[in-house]
Design goal:
Length: about 800
Amino acid sequence: MSETGIGARVTRKEDFRFVTGRGTYTDDINRPNQLWMWLLRSPHAHARLKKIDTTAAAKMPGVHAIFTHDDLARDNVGGLPCGWLIHSKDGSPMVEPPHPVLAAGVVRHVGDPIAAVIAETRAQAREAAEAIEVDYEVLPAVVDTREAIKDGAPQIWPEAKNNTCFDWHLGDKDAVDKAFAKAAHVTKLDLVNNRLVPNAMEPRAAIGEYDVATGEHTLWTTSQNPHVIRLLMGAFVLHIPEHKLRVVAPDVGGGFGSKIYHYAEEALVTWAAAKVKRPVKWTADRSESFMSDAQGRDHHTHAELALDKDGKFLGLRVSTLANLGAYLSTFSTSIPTYLYGTLLAGTYTTPAIYVETRAVFTNTVPVDAYRGAGRPEASYLLERIVDLAADELGIDPAELRRRNFIPKDAYPYQTPVALQYDSGDYFTTLDMALKAADYANFEARRKEAASRGKYRGIGMATYIEACGIAPSAVAGALGARAGLYEMAEVRVHPTGSVTLFTGCHSHGQGHETTFAQLVADRLGIPIDQVEVVHGDTGKIPFGMGTYGSRSLPVGGSAIVKALDKVVAKGKKIAAHLLEAAEADIEFKDGKFQVAGTDRAKTFGEIALTAYVPHKYPIEELEPGLDETAFYDPKNFTYPAGAHVVEVEIDPDTGVVELKGVWAADDFGRIINPMIVEGQVHGGLAQGIGQALLEHCVYDDSGQLLTGSFNDYAMPRADDLPSFHLGTNATLCTHNPLGVKGCGEAGAIGSPGAVMNAIVDALSPLGVKHIDMPASPRRIWETIQAHRPRMAAE
């Protein structure tokens, strides 16, 4: 292994500009003669807009224009599209109401945009927005899915009866019913997967610019997938031909899914710039982000697990209410369906599974993918009900899992919920995590904590996720309205340096390092001779962006294909220069060599020859060395692993202290271990944040109660212990790198492990379940509720 190639711990190339303050984020960009936009947003969760009076606001200093839905309608501006069509179990398509860029007659959640003010400064635009007079007819609101589906509940959309978007199902219901009929034991569980606010470090921002001379539009935006934004906004919203629309996503400060989607603000600054003939900029403040960025999770689920007398799983039955919010976001409908139900087999051999998801509109911010996107919800459900079953049967939770793991020699393994796993070894990762956590000696630590008046518990969770959604044909058949391939262009310069253009987008993943490692490893050149370019539709032919841990499995595979084309052409050139048969040319360590001889040409010599073709097979090959490849995966990839968490609880305060967190993961081949560890650390922090701290709460009228960091608890450094990580690789069998993906794993496995540890700690009180987040108040109230029972007994 070279010091900079595959498997090397290369320091991130991009970090110098970030740690020295030299990054270029969207808000750092200011265009000449630029104006600012501020949005007037609804203070009500549900109201009819009887009148919008902009007269006074339009006369305020610095104001250039004020736009409402009527202005957009006159220009035939379309609504924001949903990218995934779901059908209900009766075959009918989902209810797909319009998602206007500015509210059309009715507002449906607090923060719904009503008017856009364009002014010389941000402050002037904000002051003018506050001067707009709106006559609201406040309507009843509903925020809880359990209430929204009841007869007589407020209707968010008249076409969605009982606020239901779709009623989807997957699996063989008859087979599950038969499994339960012969079960020796059935475990039942009701649980909530709490709503979260993504809170990327960088709030969203957008700048629109219009070139009057050429008719070209440019949008700078905080996006995870600029080509998708260009496609959606150009084709469906503003009706701009793609060759006249450039979308640039510069440095982006985190996304976690929330920057995948096409947002109204992107369309507004692009459209408004053309109307006022000046660049228009918008940057969200944090409070605005809380009520405008798509949120995550929010499931209410009832699950039942059937087991035989030996603890073998026979069947799983799941019914979920999924909150979609007031509008359909770009990929929202795929999250509680094909990215959730298909993962309910987990790491187990459960032969029969049936899941039904009822997706519900409410008067809340739209819900879409958040780190893990359906996979954390599935894993949490499974690992909680498995732990509960182990408790009811008196079986060690590790042993119950081992009895039901998919055997090492069973791959490829077809699950009863559509997916086929290609590789895995769940026994080894669980054993690694348990050994690292000293699971065998835990009871001694529990007794020691009890002597100090504390409750101590240990919990585990195994997980599997599906990454690199694919292939496009299958995804299309399941409702995806886009392809899910990726592209790469490898441009070799005459001196042998390389520029790599990728359709993936880096917003914290370290692509500029790992992708450069791939190139350096394959071509045998120094890593500092590789430049990685991403995030600009004016430079990159096309791409589907970054989400779902797809960058290496899909984007990396496209890079490998393009590199193979470069090497293949290089062999043809080398064969001509070395007067040898092409079949005799070998390429290794940056040299094209005639097999069995010392006759060779360096990669740099071949590159120069390609561009200075004095001695070149011009009749056979075009000059130049620039290759493009597209890669459409054959299957998902399936990262998996085991997490173990140990906690100690103070019964007087309900405070949970994490005493240790151990993760053993299978990510396939690892390109850069240091970057992988960083990704897992971040995921663990977010998963632990969900389990212990984070909770997005609305009151019954639809007001957001957790609309700032004063009320929404984010994990901080002193909430987290040092993490102990390990890996065990089983290679992916269907992509050229053998990689699986790592970006979401920490957030998928950790919530279940944390909550299982908490329930284990409180098990002496008879506690069987507690919902996330396990805040000190919730823990304390649970302890108080169970102590009288203990005293009575």
